[in-house]
Write a structure and sequence with these properties.
alpha+beta; Heat Shock Protein 90; Ribosomal Protein S5, domain 2; five-stranded mixed β-sheet; 20 helices; 22 strands
Length: 661
């Protein structure tokens, strides 16, 4: 135990200014109503980018889907309005209650839309299964919307109430005293002060709405895009089995067996029900799309774990029973699932999600529910179809042998790594001291000046720096021999150590993170695009393995008396300025624009861009269903034929607010 003098020097904040110790009760803020949502939107919707914006729409749509899932609605209508920045979701369910709440003495509709953790889904009496259980979805949408209008048809009347940024603008009023049917309609316009962009993506919306109908076979969804003047109706009575067929067809990979395994159990235990469709393909990896009560669980969870347990157990049992397991071959669970494509939709009464955005299911019991429901049925399916069972077994054995060969090659390479780590490396590379690829990072940096700052600011143990000179070769317009002869690109290949094109061997890769660090301007974006084109055309396995990242250096520094903030671009700067001046309009803000990374002090570059604990990285991902589209886009925009580029520029010129030449 140690003691220290009370005469300590005042500490400095990020801007280098001294801080006082005047931390008192007046500094404690109490956020009431929906203020916490507007203060920290990321806690409720995951972020304020494109995904967060669309999360608002999913919250309202999921409420309507809950009505359908529980038998109260049959149709949902979603409209994106002409401005592209507002939407309306209408269902023919029961309609949100509008009577005065007995405790709060305000209309129930107003209570639901203005109070966190209020709703009718907590005790299970009104909704047997639902996606929204926290009682915050509608109120969060209201809090983060510049305008929201709720229209309710029930009890033979039509009611309306208007809101702005979470607060009622009108009292609940009766629009019509005589109305047929029932249902709820929510119009909302996301708040431009909160989101970096408030433009909805019609294609993304259409895709997600269609998925909802795959997961709810009796549901019809009508999607209207007023900007394009289009209407689409989604209805898929085939359910998850039809969804599986769509996914496999979109992948363009051959199935190992003709008939998929499909299971649908309406009553398992405690009100849970289950729908699963799966099949093995020649894909080099597994693909499991899991849902709980129709909500996509992108990070999986216990239900997905139960499915994996059942598949491993059933397939291994089948192979053991029929003596199909080769002696001496180690078959892992990954080998069993390689090439598997599956859709899992679990409906349960009280799902416990990790976070408000519901990315992962945490219910411990869900694992046993899914595993118990699937294992025996899958084993019976295989035993009843010997041709299918043997084809799947052959696929598993092929995967196990390939994995064993890969492990042997990787082990051999690792034995040599420490001896050859520094041989035949480019002269400009400032390598790291570690020889473990799993912890090593390579920053490909624009220019010698930025490279110098990065070298001084990095962690020498695991971060390597490779500066580039100017704009690299456009790999889309060059042959493999020309790419290999290019000095800048060959330096990258030498530094990575894994080869190029058909000779690329991931087992020899020297860094498991390859990070493109460019200036936050048009030249930097162009260089990053050229490098991504090179990786996509000649080193695509690096993208498939999730090795390639894009750093997010700030373009602006904003200083006030008490704090420092960093802005990625002009829009981010304007947003931060608004936030800082929300309390004090006369607040003085010093704004510094970085001309390039070379202008940054090494310490600043480390804090904002290099340090894993504080930096932001974008992982480069090409989803299987987007491969063809990505290939075509690169060919059009980076190829020798200038006509597609000209068409692209003419089509999108109106969307460009500022051109940096």
């Amino acid at each position: 135990m140690s003691t220290r003098s009370t005469k300590t020097k005042p500490r400095k904040n990020a801007s280098g200014r001294k801080r006082t110790n005047g931390y008192t009760g007046k500094d404690i803020q109490v956020l009431e109503g929906l203020d916490p949502v507007r203060k920290r939107p990321g806690m409720y919707i995951g972020g304020t980018g494109k995904a967060g914006l669309h999360h608002l729409l999913w919250e309202i749509v999921d409420n309507a889907v809950d009505e359908a899932t529980n038998g109260y609605a049959t149709q949902i209508e979603v409209t994106l309005h002409k401005d592209g920045q507002s939407a309306t979701v209408t269902d023919n369910g029961r309609g949100i209650p509008v009577d005065v709440h007995p405790k709060k003495k305000i209309p129930t509709l107003q209570l639901i839309l203005t109070t966190l953790h209020s709703g009718g889904k907590f005790d299970g009496s009104n909704y047997i299964t639902s996606g929204g259980l926290h009682g915050v979805g509608s109120s969060v949408v209201n809090a983060l919307s510049e305008e929201l209008v709720a229209t309710v048809r029930r009890d033979g009347k039509t009611f309306e109430q208007r809101y702005s940024r979470g607060k009622p603008k009108t009292k609940l009023k009766t629009l019509r005293k005589s109305s047929r049917g029932s249902g709820t309609s929510i119009f909302f316009r996301p708040d431009a002060e909160i989101f970096s962009s408030v433009k909805f993506d019609p294609e993304l919306v259409a895709d997600q709405l269609e998925v909802k109908t795959f997961l709810n076979g009796s549901l019809r969804i009508l999607f209207k895009d007023e900007a394009r003047g289009t209407k689409q109706e989604f209805y898929h009575e085939g359910g998850v089995s039809e969804y599986l067929d769509r996914i496999v067809a979109a992948d363009g990979t051959r199935s190992v067996h003709p008939e998929p395994f499909v299971i649908k159990q309406d009553e398992i235990v405690d009100g849970a029900r289950l729908e699963i469709a799966l099949r093995w393909t020649e894909k080099p990896r597994e693909s499991i799309l899991s849902f709980v009560n129709g909500i996509p669980t992108r990070d999986g969870g216990t239900h997905e774990g139960g499915l994996k347990d059942a598949i491993r157990s059933a397939v291994r049992s089948y192979m053991d029973t029929h003596s199909l397991m080769p002696k001496g071959l180690d078959v892992s669970a990954d080998d069993v699932r390689e090439g598997l494509v599956a859709v899992l939709n679990l409906f349960m009464v009280d799902p416990q999600f990790q976070g408000q955005t519901k990315e992962k299911l945490n219910n411990v019991g869900a694992r046993a529910i899914v595993s118990g429901a699937v294992r025996l049925d899958l084993e019976k399916f295989l035993n009843a179809r010997p041709t299918t069972g043997e084809a799947i077994a052959a696929r598993v054995i092929q995967s196990a042998r390939a994995r064993a060969a890969s492990r042997a090659a990787a082990k051999s390479v690792r034995r040599k790594t420490s001896l050859s780590h520094r041989l035949n490396l480019p002269g400009k590379l400032a390598d790291c001291s570690s020889t473990d690829p799993e912890e090593c990072e390579l920053f490909i940096v624009e220019g010698d000046s930025a490279g110098g700052s990065a070298k001084q600011g990095r962690n020498r143990k695991f971060q390597a720096i490779l500066p580039l000179r100017g704009k690299v070769l456009n790999a889309e317009q060059a042959s493999l021999s020309k790419v290999s002869a290019n000095k800048e690109l060959s330096n990258i290949v030498q530094a990575l150590g894994c080869g190029l094109g058909d000779k690329l061997n991931l087992a020899r890769l020297r860094y498991r993170k390859v990070i493109l660090l460019m200036d936050a301007d048009s030249d930097g974006h162009h260089i990053a695009t050229l490098l991504l084109t090179f990786f996509f055309r000649y080193m695509r396995p690096l993208i498939d393995e999730g090795v390639i990242y894009i750093a997010q250096p700030p373009l602006y520094r904003l200083d006030t008396k008490s704090e420092t903030a960093w802005a990625l671009d002009d829009k981010h700067r304007d947003k931060l300025v608004k936030q800082l001046r929300r309390k004090r309009k006369d607040l003085k803000i010093d704004i510094q624009r970085f001309k390039g990374l070379g202008e940054m002090m090494p310490k600043t570059l480390n804090e904002t861009t290099l340090d894993p604990s504080s930096r932001q990285l974008l992982r480069v991902v090409v989803r299987d269903r987007d491969r063809l589209k990505t290939d075509q886009t690169i060919s059009q925009l980076m190829g020798k034929d200038s006509a597609p580029r000209f068409d692209f520029i003419m089509q999108n010129a109106s969307h460009v607010e500022e051109l940096d030449v």
